[in-house]
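Q: What would this chain look like folded?
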Amino acid sequence: MAEQRKDLGRQLAGWRAAAGMTQAQLAKRICYSRSTLANAETGRDMSIRGFWCDADEVVGANGVLFPLGQDGVRHPV
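A: My prediction, written as C-alpha cells:
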C-alpha cells in the first residue's frame, strides 16, 4: 500500500509539473495547504476524496488520479 501511495504521489507531481504549476499554485487552486499537497506527492498523506478529485481536475489528468469506478463514483487509484 505504501508503494501505491508513493506512485500516486509521483503521478500527481508529474501532472502538476506538466500543467506548469508549483505546489503552492495547485494547493491554492484546490483549497488545501502546500504542505498537504507536498505530503500527498511523497506518499505520506492520501487526504480525502475531494483532494484527489479536485487535483485531478485542475491538472487536467482526466481521471488518471481519480478515475470513475463501475458504480459511477470517482475512486482514487
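The CA atoms of residues 27 and 37 lie 6 Å apart.
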